[in-house]
């Protein structure tokens, strides 16, 4: 009867569509040696009791206490790992100034592997403690330090997708923080891809190299073209910033007379494994190109409020068939928590609805069909992220990875306000979404391995 590596018992919440969650009350989750959910057994299934009897009291049986729930681990589609060192600072200035006066000087320090290691250990640990089981990272231009970030993900058990950043244009980037030249930028990227692929052989949860032109303004045409070719040659993920702010979007229009989406596509950078951050100025034509190529959007609601004064119409892009997940954009977004980004996604979307401000003439602001529910924002942070990466993650479902966070609503020093023992589970779910903090995340599991507990 002991046929599964591990058996988990409890109530889980998972998305089944953007608008709908499924509540698996008191189910059994059978996880195999590869860390995959092999079977989910409901209380009414015939072997439920016999499975429980067989595993009770064993080391590989994990039963949730009262008030605890399983959620899928979060998938953060856009994190600048080095910028963790400046999170929470300098958000009152525009993107261009922020990059040049704060961000590039900070990132240049990651040539120092000791400093890089200190920050990267901390950011990966912090994201895990916030329930993020998979993260798509920008590192810096430095090949060695970028590899160190992938190694730290592998060691700590987080599923990390990591990019060595390319910024090769000497006209656009500071002298002390850019690739030496285009040839070196491409050679370093190729070496980095090969090194991460090697590392991946010993990381059960997966680590992946990501081709990473920072954004069009930082790269020459030759670099963009070469990166598109490398991504095709090694079938890698691709990430960049797309149509983020007035300035960045306008720069690309001046240089190519087209929007970022079509410019990136010309260089082979929009593929099924592409994830583009922000996309505040995406036209319907751009969105159709995203849908055709399988390119996903990393929606970064906190950062967009600061750098773009903008809210993207998520539901509208979903209707157009575009895959969308959620990104913290540390440190353009100050918070390492996707719970915070879920909340901001909902709040921002409510401010985008048409006709919200009665003192303005109708139609002067607002986008119809932009309002998101908390269930939809949860979808973005979980299932939407998994779809964006084309990986079987982000859902508590058979044949998906056992990537979960265990939420404790009765955490003694921080109880959630649940006073009725028969409260509807969907209401409890909403309270978790709005009120959970890292204190409530008791354990985090990735690919069947416990990677965090408190
Ligand atoms: N555009 C280019 N680089 C960056 C960055 O580091 N953060 C954000 N938010 N936008 C960018
Ligand atoms: Fe960013």
From TrEMBL:
Start and end residues of each Amidohydrolase-related domain: 71-451
Cross-referenced Gene3D superfamilies: Metal-dependent hydrolases, Urease, subunit C, domain 1
Family named by the database record: Belongs to the metallo-dependent hydrolases superfamily. ATZ/TRZ family.
EC number: 3.5.4.3
Annotated catalysed reactions: guanine + H2O + H(+) = xanthine + NH4(+)
Cofactor: Zn(2+)
Protein name: Guanine deaminase
